[in-house]
Design brief:
Layout (H helix, E strand, L loop, with lengths): L10 H12 L5 H11 L10 H14 L3 E5 L5 H9 L5 E5 L3 H13 L6 E4 L3 H10 L7 E6 L6 H11 E10 L16 H19 L3 E6 L5 E6 L2
Parallel strand pairs: 1-2, 1-4, 2-3, 4-5
Antiparallel strand pairs: 5-7, 6-7
The chain binds S-adenosylmethionine and ligand LAOBWLLU.
The ligand O=c1cc(-c2ccc(O)cc2)oc2c(O)c(O)ccc12 binds next to loops.
Length: 230
Amino acid sequence: MFPNPVILQSEGLLKYILETGVYPREAETLKELRNATAKHPLGFMGTAPDVGQLIAMLLKMLNAKKTIEVGVFTGYSLLLTALTIPHDGKIIAMDPDRKAYEIGLPFIRKAGVEHKIDFIESPALPVLDKLLEDGENEGSFDFGFVDADKNNYWNYHERLMRLVKIGGVVVYDNTLWGGSVALAEERVSEAKREWRRLSLAFNEAISKDSRLQIAFLSIGDGLIICTRLR
Ligand SMILES: C[S@@+](CC[C@H](N)C(=O)[O-])C[C@H]1O[C@@H](n2cnc3c(N)ncnc32)[C@H](O)[C@@H]1O
Ligand SMILES: O=c1cc(-c2ccc(O)cc2)oc2c(O)c(O)ccc12
């Protein structure tokens, strides 16, 4: 069984990648959080561990210290980020669902990284707007990860482009939405059509955004990595 919605259509190859290069290097507390998340009815929403591995590498390459997380759920990508950034690093994480966050919290505490996390129980947009009211926050973040309500991705992008420093990175999850972006609309289930349309519009807008260098990746459910150029 695929652990999450994934673009890679070879179950064997994904299993090989995860079992060879990802699971053996996954921190014990992350593994425990992932297993606890699997019992949640929406457990499929958790960030894929191979995506997590890539995010950790980006964080290390950037020497990221100050990050933003939009969409926490039970906290797989949050714990991964907290484990990766330095002891005095900070993550501002936002999600209206505190109950899901509390599923992951014991593992965050066990890992000894809770002090790096400022969890804000709220939709992300007003929090990002509030951050922007203080000019000191502009261009002060090293990294952002967006894995939340797909209809607001462009709104998040506009704010993150001001909050992240030049050379900073923002990563967007689910940009290929189960592969539906490459299918004719009538071949996509009614349930997926709206998010397919949103993904198409977001991907096109990002592609045209001259402020960025971008990479479109077919990992997990599709990832866009953006570096702010100016
Ligand atoms: C796919 S999950 C996030 C997965 C998470 N990155 C992980 O590693 O498990 C999407 C999350 O977005 C949250 N969400 C929905 N609307 C939101 C909003 N307006 N602002 C912030 N988070 C939101 C949901 O509550 C849900 O927990
Ligand atoms: O099936 C999903 C649904 C979401 C989702 C739905 C509604 C929201 O407000 C936020 C997120 O996110 C997903 C996701 O990030 C994923 O990797 C797989 C599936 C889903």
